[in-house]
Amino acid sequence: MDPVEQADHRNVAELLRSVREHRSLTQQELASRAGLERAQLNRYERGRREPSLATLRRVLEALGWALVLKVEPTMARLDEALDRDFHVLELLGPDLPRVLEVAALAYEYGAGLVVGGEVAAVLQGVPVRSADIHIVVRPDDVGLVVKAAGAFHHGVTDCHDHSGDLFLYVGAARVRLVESEVLPGNRLVRVDFESWFSGRPVPVVELAVLSESGALGAGAAAMVRRKVLLSGTESIPGSVL
Questions:
Q1: Sign of CA dihedral 204, 101, 196, 84
Q2: Cα separation, 27 vs 32, whole angstroms
Q3: Residues 195/101, Cβ–Cβ less than 8 Å
Q4: Which of 230, 185, 187 is nearest to 212 (CA)?
Q5: Residue 188 located in a structural domain
Q6: Whether residues 130 and 35 fall in one domain
Q7: 196-220: pLDDT as tens digits
Q8: Residue of 83, 102, 82 lying closest to 193 (CA atoms)
Q9: How many Å apart are CA 222 and CA 203, to the nearest integer?
Q10: Are residues 96 and 29 part of one domain?
Q11: Residues 105, 224: one domain?
């Protein structure tokens, strides 16, 4: 991946200077390509003035980049969301608890598995309203997941898609089973769903791993990162072993 794509720039001035230097261009060369005066570009790079969106787009296009805008919630909004009381069932909906029942039973059978996706964040106290879930399972233990699903009369397809993944169907939920010999870093959580497996452990991908996975939506990722940052001084609500 290009180093420019990997970098986090604190402001427009730093972004412009970094990208220009990465392309080995002088200010005069870039200004000429973008139709600007060198002094104008110099002011942008020094943070003396902020370019308009149109100007910023033009400069980046001259460097071979497109401007893509992204917004993230403020720290205050994240803290407000994390402080709010919520019930896990309200966020998971009617089908995902049954998926977790299957995972809990398969784990009791001895299956090496970990629940991932945004549901893993919900189970660790992050209030994300999402149906995104997958289960990472060791290839030799897929049969135990199928057995657990059968115990609840849930269906498991015997077809694999082009990626080689197996899918578990529970009600309206379609859950990808990712076969892997190596399981991601995880922790055990207990959740009270007022069902047979209330209080039984379910392995989930730990928040620090989720925050670096790139598998979460922008809003969920921001909340998970904030939760990880606060975890040194705050405990995750009583579901975690």
A1: positive
A2: 9
A3: yes
A4: 185
A5: yes
A6: no
A7: 556 788 999 998 898 887 777 777 7
A8: 102
A9: 22
A10: no
A11: yes
Q: Is 69 exposed, middle or buried (0-12, 13-18, 19+ CB in 10 A)?
A: exposed
Number of domains in the chain: 2
> Could you give the CA distance from residue 71 to residue 230 in angstroms, rounded to a whole number?
21
Q: Could you tell me which residues are beta bridge partners of residue 137?
A: 113, 179
Instruction: Work out whether strand 173-179 and strand 166-170 pair parallel, antiparallel, or are unpaired.
Output: antiparallel
Domain of 49, in residue numbers? 3-62
- 17 with 45: CB under 8 angstroms? yes
**CA dist., res. 45 & res. 134, Å (int):** 44
Token duo for residue 235: 């405990």
Other C-beta atoms within 10 Å of 52: how many? 8
Of 12, 54, 10, 48, whose CA–CA distance to 36 is shortest?
Answer: 54
Final residue of a structural domain among 62, 90, 111: 62
Dihedral sign for Cα atoms in the order 124, 174, 137, 198: positive
Structure tokens at 23: 């392309």
pLDDT value for 233: 36
Task: Note the residue count of the chain.
Answer: 241
Neighbours of 232 (CB within 10 A): 6
Do the Cβ atoms of 187 and 120 come closer than 8 Å? Answer: no
- State the pTM of this model: 0.65
Per the rule left: phi > 0, alpha: psi between -120 and 50, beta: everything else, 93 is left
Chain segment 124-157, per-residue pLDDT in tens: 888 887 667 889 999 999 889 888 888 766 555 5
**Which residue from 89, 90, 110 is spatially nearest to 98, judged by alpha carbons?**
89
Rounded Cα gap, residues 73 and 67, in angstroms? 20
> Residue 161: phi, psi to the nearest 5?
-90, -170
